[in-house]
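Our collaborator T.R. sent over the components below with a one-line note: 'Predict the complex.' Nothing else. No constraints on interfaces, no templates requested, no preferences about which chain binds where. So this is a plain run: every listed entity goes in together, and whatever single assembly comes back becomes the starting point for the next discussion.
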Amino acid sequence: MLFFNMAWRNVWRNRRRSLLTVMAISLGLGFNIFMRAIGDGFHEQMVDNSVRSHIGHLEVHRAGYHDDPGINKTLPNPEEIGRAIQSLPDLRGYSLRVLGDGLASTAENSAGVAIVGIDPTMERKVTTINRGIVRGEYLREGEVRPILIGERLAVNLKAGLGDKVVLLVQAADGSMGANLFRVVGIFRSGAPELDSGMAFILRQDAQELFSLQNRVTEATILLNSSRAVPASQQDLQSKLAGKGVEVLTWYQVEPFLLQFIQLDDAFFYIIVIFFFVVISIGILNTIMMSVFERVREFGVMMALGTKPRQIIKLVVEEAFVLALVGALIGSAIGISASLYFATEGMNLSSWAEGAAALGMTSTMVYTRLTAANVVISNLSVLAVVVLVGLYPAMHASRLRPVEAIRHV
Amino acid sequence: MALVELDNVTKTYMNHVSVHALRGVTLSLQPGSFAAVAGPSGSGKTTLLNVVGALDQPDAGSVRIGGVDLTTTPPDQLADFRLRHIGFVFQAYNLLPVLTALENLEFIPALQGESKEKRIRRAEELLRTVGLSDIRDKRPNELSGGQQQRVAVLRAILTEPEVVLADEPTANLDSTNASLLLDMMEELNREKRITFLFSTHDPLVMERARRLIRLRDGEVVSDENRDGSAAGVKP
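Returned assembly:
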């Protein structure tokens, strides 16, 4: 304890220098925690937007569908699959869909579209398309062949509310399927590929259009948390083993999203390393100066019987004190900023187009603070500072007392 | 049996020119000695104290304390030897500036692994014995030179080492404080039988030392014993 007291007091012998170093550590750590929280929040929103816009956390298809989709590859025994899905402990909702490609035409224009046949009640529990209606209304059971189209698709087709749209598809039996639909709603998801190329119709209309009778092509599942994805996938895979289906996670369905997050993380860590290097140089300078100013003192301590390892311990403890104070203040800064923007959000409307390209449906980014972020950031700073302190500590421990005592 | 024995100790410093700091010094000190090494600057006084204190190694000859040959002791064990057997008093006091007087006294017992309770009790008792209780919580920069040097002496003797080496202990003190310091060291020497070896220029110290060894150009030129016992110079 006497040594730790010495370390503490030594640090504050040159108050201004130590405070500047503490400030550098605090700002570096606070920035690190805050940037990580922005990254985590941004990634979570991206995933959530993607998941809630159409893909869900998990998708169940006939085996091989993901690699080579086709309207013929329908789910065997959807009722049994539905029961297996309903037994998932983290289930929030699921939707049985028909997914196929076709051509949408109006009197003015035509465009290729992905046609999604849905049960509106089930779909509401999984996706948020219903919340993105900008004109008209969401699909309702009982209407005669309603269609919901994306905002850009509406522009391309020059279709407005109440206008007729003909969908032309190749049906499961090889015949051409065609039917007339009426636009009941126009949505904006924020995701360009959805807004320009997706049309929602009722599931029974889609089954009729594609000659599928009661069959569906996929089950889309929303869980309570993305953290439940791996366990739920495993659970469902074991329940549906041997049924000829594949259970895919959102990152298997859209691997580019995960790759983007990993790439973004890699850039973040490069910045963090750069920050740590800058901070380390500052700390090294502080501790080196502190050691050089106290050569005589170290000489006296060694003459009195202090062992080199105890000198190393003292100097490293001084570095640790700097790091600890910096870490406490930095954590307070980082946590406060992260918590504030977790509720208030950050307005990125200036970069709205870029955000939309990344699948962001909102221009507000909410930070997400995790315990892992705070713990890892703090431990990294403490470890780096202590490592940096080792060099001057070794230097001090190698002094020869007989020379050090005479140092002026 | 002698406590400190130097046998034909030689030390040469090589700079631009070689300086023979010690030339075949042979002497011994009995336990309880109160001895001073005197001589002009460059005579080798400090070098002598350094080799006796295991801070420096001679080029030739041997140095023994309590029968332990310091010239053959591995360097990593010398720190431990100093900690347990030798006390140091420096010319510039050299108290640790961030510690209070009491904590400076605690420092060596703390290094020796003594419990906090025990070392504080011993330090307080020692401060009380020499009438310095009122400065126990003051840091060195709040103490006079005389007070600092007395605390430095107490630090050196608290753990009762075999020998205390004091390098010009009165050099920075006025005659009153120097006299007070010598009174204290004499008393500690008498009561605790701690051996003191000084290097000094100070006539007051030379006068009070019971044995006076004079060096010139690294050689012992005289060794005067004032208490009637035999001096430790070997022929």
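Summary for T.R.: The radius of gyration of chain A is 31 Å.
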